[in-house]
Amino acid sequence: MNRSSILFSLSKSHPSKTAKGGAARPGSNFSSVKFNAMAHREPLKYVFYFAVSPEKVWDGFVSAESNRVIFTGAELKTDLKPGSSIEWVGPGPDGKPMAYVHGEVLQVDAPRLLQYTFAMGPNQKMSRATIELVPESEATQVTVVHDEWAEDDPTYTACADGWPRILSRLKTLIETGETFKPH
Questions:
Q1: 36: phi > 0 → left, psi -120 to 50 → alpha, else beta; which?
Q2: pTM > 0.85: yes or no
Q3: Could you read off the pLDDT of 125-177 as tens digits, one per residue?
């Protein structure tokens, strides 16, 4: 697995719309429809609770320091203005800087919402990532929705595996000041 796969290997777990073998489950809205996960890209959605304020979670997502820790040396490059570029840049296999992830900022409402287009490495198929922070009594609800996938986007599986890892590492870092190494 290469470095960018490790950094942004994003695990999705949601029940299939079909029973084993592709037949519709009893009571479903599908009648003898074969479900092909590769042809239909469901949005990836993750909800975590961080025991800190939305401002601290926001800083965790956008600060240079936390991004270097979470993404093992990668730098977040953006001015966080709609229409501007957003990239996570770090050393490539040859040691030269490369963009692990690149896209365009769509919406920013600090410390509540960050939305941007998303493509990994040299891939040019853009999807969309939305990070929403909602304050609760003693925590912040963090919801990440990664959607608008091209049917043939080769990074879907990596993103489905990586988002829970990234969010877990960020939560641990923000709450304890330390985090664990990526796999």
A1: beta
A2: no
A3: 999 999 999 999 999 999 999 999 999 999 999 999 999 999 999 999 999 99
Angle at 67 between CA 54 and CA 62, to 5 degrees: 40
Q: Specify the number of domains making up the chain.
A: 1
Q: What ranges in 63-154 are assigned the alpha helix state H?
A: 64-70
What are the two backbone dihedrals, phi and then psi, of residue 157, each rounded to the nearest 5 degrees?
-65, -40
- Say how far residue 12 (Cα) sits from the centre of its chain: 11
Query: Which residues, other chains included, contact 136 with Cβ-Cβ below 8 Å and sequence gap of 6+?
Result: 49
Residue 17 maps to a domain = no
Tens digit of each residue's pLDDT (9 = 90 or more) over 25-67? 444 443 333 334 444 689 999 999 999 999 999 999 999 999 9
Q: How far apart are CA 38 and CA 22, in angstroms?
A: 13
Residue 74's nearest CA partner among 116, 112, 10, 121 is 121
Q: Which domain holds residue 55?
A: 43-176
Largest CA-CA distance found in the chain, in angstroms, rounded:
54
CATH of the domain at 110: 3.30.530.20
> Is 170 domain-assigned?
yes
